[in-house]
Amino acid sequence: MQTLHPSNASGRRKNYLPAIDCPLEGAQVKSFYLTTAIDYANGSPHLGHAYEKILADAIVRSRRMEGVPCHFVTGLDEHGQKVQETAERAGIPPQQLCDGVAEDFQSMCHLMQVHYDDYLRTTQPRHVATVRGILSKLYESGSIYKAPYNGLYSVRAERFVQEKDKVDGRWPEDFGEVIELREENYFFKMKEQRLWLIDFLQKNDSFIFPSYRQKQVLEFLAEPINDLCISRPKSRLSWGIELPFDSNYVTYVWFDALINYISAVGYGTERFNDFWPADVEVIGKDILVPAHAVYWPIMLRAIGLEMPRKLVVHGWWLAKGGEKMSKSVGNVVHPIDYAKVYGSDAFRYFVLSEMNVGQDSNFSHELFVARYRADLSNDLGNLLSRTVHMLDRYCESTVPAIEIKESQEEKLMDAAEKAIADTRECCRDFNFSGALAATFNLVRAANRYLESRSPWKLFGGNGEGNATASTSLAMCAECIRICASLLTPAMPAAAEKIFAQIGSEKCDDWRQLLWGNSLEGKRVGERTILFPRIGDE
Fold it and tell me: The pTM is what?
């Protein structure tokens, strides 16, 4: 047995992961600016909305854990034909409908611990002014023109479509009813930008994550694209931002909505350069093409702005068996219900661990319960509960020193070191499934170590033990402290409760996260069950 003095019990422990770019003290730096797609004000929050906000929140929290200043924006897309029609059916003004929907979405964010810095609504004066200013600029430069149009229009998608948009000869379900329209409208010149956009994507092969989504955009651009109709006559749609150069028209909802990413951070003001370009735009795969990968880059180029640095594109949540969720089928998951019953930390853990960003994933009650029981209740919950209980019983509620270092202790310290490095690297790559797996590898390693050392067998009836017994509890407490820090982006409230139970100060800077002896002499808190066992109901 090798005995270590408490002051150097950490031995060779060090943080060997290279640091990412972070601000120098006192330096003026651009914030890490992250946005999500703004939700459409035509329904209640669903699983896809909740996941996107949780993913974005986890990205921002992980960056802040690296010492990076961040600015996180989300919001609500409030204009368009569907909103107007829904309000008419309800017998209320569109703005009243939007106010209610905005409250629902913001309440969901609060429940899910999604802490945004700004919530942009497209009816806000700051956004309306920005949209009208950009429209005027583009019209005066000749990038917008008026012309008659005769073509097909998707009512549900609120956009003009072409025969090439059909899949196997049929209109996609998302298009809903497709009708023929004849009317004059205003168009934004896009045809001539197609070759530039192809060249941009080929030179910036990491613009879209995951990379195979970028290949899909290039496939779309292999054929000619049309100029974008950016207006709707008030005769059939009045709920929108009026064109500054023609009061008989309102702005097409997608052209209006995309501008939120710059109106939210003060486009046209001195503060704008503190944020733009956006570092990450988090969106779903269904709105990548053409909106975010074609319309948006061309719009930005037309007004002389840099492109966002990266589009992070997530997949869809499917029902059990891989079926698409549908209200009519009755297989829709209500995220708010899950968060209220099982806690938002458990819900956040499930969606972040179950979905690999970019791929589709299944959500079922059976899957949720299985992960909750195995990972949260059994692995993490038991480790915390047993460790705090034994510290309370055998060590007068105080964390002892790490006094010995044998092969089992060395192995656990190596596991902790690896968990820190792997979790941080996965978070940087938007791989939160991998990050959580890396952290829970440490949880399971600590459980195995605890079983192997079996300190409850080493302490005497009067509570007296030996160095091995006390060291094993100190080792587990240190592993729990590290796990709590690594879990902070995914499970922020649970992490704080874990810190409190083991008597640790909150560690919110991964650059300072090292294996150590910082808990020696700390008093543990009151033992509580973070993840109660649940039945099959």
Answer: 0.92
